[in-house]
Each structure stands twice: as C-alpha cells, then as structure tokens.
Automatic annotation (TrEMBL):
The lineage of its organism: Bacteria, Pseudomonadati, Pseudomonadota, Alphaproteobacteria, Rhodobacterales. The chain crosses the membrane at residues 12-39, 85-104, 110-131, 214-236, 242-264. This is Probable membrane transporter protein. GO terms for cellular component: plasma membrane. It is a multi-pass membrane protein. Its main location: membrane. Belongs to the 4-toluene sulfonate uptake permease (TSUP) (TC 2.A.102) family. It is found in: Cell membrane; Membrane. Keywords: Cell membrane, Membrane, Transmembrane, Transmembrane helix. It comes from the Bacteria. The keyword Magnesium does not apply.
Amino acid sequence: MQIYLPIAEVSVNAFLLLGLGGMVGILSGMFGVGGGFLMTPLLFFIGIPPAVAVATEANQIVASSFSGVLAHFRRKTVDLKMGTVLLVGGLIGAAFGVVIFNYLKSLGQVDLLVTLCYVVFLGVVGSLMFIESLNALRKSKKGTAAPVARRQRGWIHAMPFKMRFRTSGLYISVIPPVLVGLSVGILSAIMGVGGGFIMVPAMIYLLGMPTKVVVGTSLFQIIFVTAFTTMLHATTNYTVDIVLAVLLLVGGVIGAQIGTVIGARMPAEQLRVLLAALVLVVCGKLALDLLLEPSELYSLGVAGGH
C-alpha cells in the first residue's frame, strides 16, 4: 500500500514504514535506547531526504522517551535537578545546531554533513561498544565479574559553581553537565537523535552519576530537547512530515512492547554484542553509499529554494 509523504515528496509503502518503526521499537525495548541513531539512517536507505528524516525522527523520540520516563518517575530514578541543568545546555545546543543545519541547507550541503556525522559517530560508538561487550562476554564465561567503574575525583571536582544533586548523591560544578547537554543538543538538531548513546556514558564516567538514575534522567532531558528541536525544524525548515511521524510512531509503540519481552529473556552481554554489530553494519552501509559512485551522477533540483 503506497502512501504519499507530503513534506518528503516521495511515495513509500506504509507497511514498510510500520515495519521499520516496529523493528526499531523492538530494539528500543530490548536495549533501552531511543533508536534514533538507527532509524534515521534506515529512512535514508528507503529514499527519505536526510533533512526530513532528521526533523521527523526527533519528533518520534519525544513520544518513546515520554513513555520511558514515566516508568522511571514511578521508580524514583530521575534526578530532576541534574536533568534541568543538562536541559539548559541541551536547549542552547539545539538552537545552535538548528542554525548550523539551516546554514548548510542553504548551501545545499546538509545531506552530506548528516551522513558524515552518522558514519563517524556510529563507527566510533559501535567499535567501542563491540570491544567492551566482547570483553564482558568473555569475563562472564570465565565467571569473573566485570570491574565496577570507580568515581574519579579529578578536574571536575576542582571546578567552580558547585551544586548539590541529592538524588545522584553528587556535589559537583554545573559546568560539565551544561557542556554535556550542549553537545547532545547540537547532535539532536543535526542528526535527529536523542543523544542517549553519548549522554549515558558521559553521565556515568564523566559526571560519576549512579547507573540507576542515569537512564531516567537522560530520558527526561531528551524529551524537552527533541521537542524543542522538532519545533525549530518545523517552524524554520518546514521539514517535519506528520504522516511519516505517525506511521513510525504506531510501529514503534507496538515494537517496544515486543522488545521489552525479548530483552527480559536474553543475557545482557549478548544483547550488547548484537546492538554493537547492528550499529557497525548501518555505519558500513552509510560509508559505502558515500564512497560508491551514484547511479545518477546528475540530478535536477532547485538550489537554495530560489
């Protein structure tokens, strides 16, 4: 069943979009990730223009993060004070990211920038995750426990503007959380991702937050940053395709329920290896698309909207 996407200006099979949404929803339920870093490249592969894919995917992340954060609120695993500090940086970063995005769009270079960002980030994150999860798998087979990350008292504790975060049990400067939020906000605007795959490790290893409050706090910040990003893209670029967003959302909600059930039955180490392998496959496909000669060397289009 072909459906026309008015903003993307392409016809796509509705069941394919529902299937993609469902597949990423399953991954989201299994691995506890927003899935934006996989969904956006998958939309590129089926012919959705990168500018539309980025803006629309940010919209889908709002819904999936909102349902996730409600569960964390019930468990009292959200540090609202830390989330607010991260949010301040995130909103500034998102606004800055949309300015960069719009400038490159006017130059006609935004598709290349988005794809390059994905190749670099997915390559780095996928490789690190793959090495770390293989080590964890090896240790679990030997029966030795993985070492617990120690909280380091380094340069972060020497910085000014300290604040007490009671839920996280921290007394640190607000500068590092603001900078973490800022970088994730820029990524959210340019790549259409929640940024959880960068924010979660940064919160654990850089800020020294306890793991149990990290995911909930990350989701809390992601909701507002991605909502703000979507609004900016919709009002400045007009690149949010509501038909595409609804189809992905329906598939994602159903898939997340299935993924949660599967995730509960599989060992955590195996899940991480699978996710890392998937990230590297998507990265390889994007890199190939950049390097290989396209079938049509020239395409007719209106440059810069003139």
